Amino acid sequence: MTRLLIVYGTEEGQTAKIATRIGEVARGKGYSVDVYNAKNAPRSLSFDDVAAVVVGASLHAGRYEGYLRNWVKAHRADLERVPSFFYSVSLTSSLSTPESQAQVERCVDQFVRETGWKPPTVAYLAGALPYTRYNVVKRFVMRMIAKSVGGPTDTSRDYEFTDWDAVTHFAEEVLAAMPTSAPRGVLLC
User: Fold this and answer.
1) In sequence order, which residues have a C-beta less than 8 Å from that of residue 188 and are 6 or more positions away?
2) What is the CATH number of the domain that holds 98?
3) How confident is the model at residue 180 (pLDDT cuts 50, 70, 90)?
4) Are residues 61 and 19 part of one domain?
5) What is the reported pTM?
6) What angle do CA 110, 152, 103 make, to 5 degrees?
7) Are residues 41 and 81 in the same domain?
8) Shared domain check, 64 and 30
9) Mean pLDDT of all residues in the chain?
């Protein structure tokens, strides 16, 4: 097994950016990497030479993407066979209160109940607030939520809260679980 597989679900694209960064870190260390949006992952995706799997999902209104949950359910046996990792992306993770951490952990627990997959390692990563990509209603709702927690409310621009050093650290943790010999190359889909 020589390949890192990264599968993600995203709504506005921040989870995809994080998946890409994890892939870049792995590629920089000489690993072979496949990165897929779960919406477009091949149905016949082979896990034969997969050394580890990273699954990422964005949290919206307390839920992760349905299509990603379905992908995890369909591949649960494979995820349990190799080292597997999960990263949760949310604005709530940008808040440093025990209540916000507990809230995200409850969402991950619900994800585990729904999919049957209990990832041994979970990273909680802050997402983004892309006001300029929201429709009028979502922009209003997100502004009210941001205001209620003291976040940015200028809807004329986007805000990124992701700690890229934390993403790199997570990627390195994943790589530490993989075999030491690593082939070259990356496939981004």
Assistant:
1) 20, 23, 35
2) 3.40.50.360
3) low
4) yes
5) 0.88
6) 15
7) yes
8) yes
9) 89
CB 3 within 8 A of CB 184: no
101 and 11 fall within a common domain: yes
CA–CA–CA angle 181, 184, 188 (5° rounding): 125
Query: Domain check: are 49 and 141 in the same one?
Result: no
Instruction: Write down the residue that tokens 């870049």 correspond to.
Output: 24
Give the Cα separation of 122 and 88 in Å (integer).
7
Query: pLDDT for 10-25, tens place per residue?
Result: 988 999 999 999 999 9
Q: Which residues contact 68 (CB under 8 A, 6 or more apart)?
A: 7, 8, 9, 38, 55, 57
3-class SS of residue 85: strand
Q: Do 119 and 42 fall within a single domain?
A: yes
Residues written for the chain = 189
Span 61-94, pLDDT tens digits: 888 999 999 999 999 999 999 999 999 998 788 7
**Total of domains in the chain:** 2
Domain that holds residue 120: 3-127+162-188
Is the distance from CB of 69 to CB of 111 less than 8 angstroms?
yes
Q: What is the DSSP letter of 60?
A: B
Q: Are 127 and 15 in contact (CB under 8 A)?
A: yes
Q: Do 46 and 137 reside in the same domain of the chain?
A: no
CA–CA separation, 24 and 18 (whole Å): 10
Query: Percent of the chain beyond pLDDT 70?
Result: 94
